[in-house]
Protein 1
Amino acid sequence: MRKIIVVVLILIFSHSAKAQYKGQWRAIHAYEMTSGKGFFGMNFTGEYFPLNYFSIVPSMTFFLPATGNARGFDLNVRYYLTEKQRQWYALLGYGHYTRIFEFNPKGSLRFNSINLGAGGMIKLSDEIGLNPEIRYQPIGRNEFIFKLGVVYFIN
């Protein structure tokens, strides 16, 4: 009986979810590919809406180069342009990239950059969606970053 009550409560609360309003949270797991070096990476992102249609989006990416390791940290602000099943946004933010080499006298590279981009949230249900995104980092890396993720709409 308790399981039935829990399932009914989850269904009631999940259908009352709204889009991009103050106080909402989202969790995103994505995969990224860079244009210049062709690195593939795993991305973990959180999204919080302090204001309607504006969100703060910190993310951490672990890239997988052939040797050594690389990681990126981004702190972006998104502004949502639409709010239906397909939610499109523009983003602006800060990015930090670190690459550590093995067997190379360079040792490591570090870049700070500006993120400019756009993307979307395509809702598949009230809880799950897809997140395609493209970012350009004109300073430091001078690369495009393509991202495709799965979104969990927390509330």
Note: The chain has one domain: 18-153.
Protein 2
Amino acid sequence: MGRCTTCDSDEHPYLRGYEVVVVAVLKNALRTEEYEYLTTEEEVCAAGGVGPDDRVEVAPILPKDGLSFVTSDPRAIDLEAFRFLARDRAN
């Protein structure tokens, strides 16, 4: 939590190129409507880490205003920090 990364999401084009901060992990949100909402590093580790079926709740860092209070939930693989998950899924 609190990790800074950049976003490149077709689902959330308004975030494309923005630096964002990780707020939570929505574990298995791409696989089921009954996902876990994880807000601590300990919870994420206990759930097996961030995976390709997860969404990640993020808050953009706005150039003039700092951290936005508005959040979005792109796929984990749409964030630079987790892009390796897409490559792992393909193999």
Note: The first strand starts at residue 4 and ends at 6.
Protein 3
Amino acid sequence: MSNHIANHLDAEIAKAGEQLEKLSEELYEIGEPASRELDRRLKALKVEYKALQRNYSEFQHRDHDGALALQKIHILLDHIEREESSLEHEANFLHQSNPSTMALAVRAGSHLVDLYRQGKQHLIGDRHPLGASAFVNQSADEIKAMNKHSG
């Protein structure tokens, strides 16, 4: 096998591996359950990638030309690249989709809590709603000093 072919295949296989890692990170960001089916396909693709690496390694250690083995490597590499492209397209679609109902519920709950706090602050200000106790936020020395002044 010529160095040109070997360098080209090395670069293509490394590029496919990097793309798989990028897809893994992207699917992790999407999260469950939206990415469940894509994750299953990604795991199958990783198995095919390992088979590609194994086939290429065996091909490199052969003494003869192995045109058929080289053809199989190219077919597997093309398949992996097409599947990666498909997964990336679907993952991008999921990133652009509307938020899930759970995300909407969390946002709505957070908004309601903020509105409640703003309303409470507007109505009662910084005062404690039940009044101030002589014992709240007072040290023991301050309480003794208050007893001396009142008695």
Note: The mean pLDDT is 78.
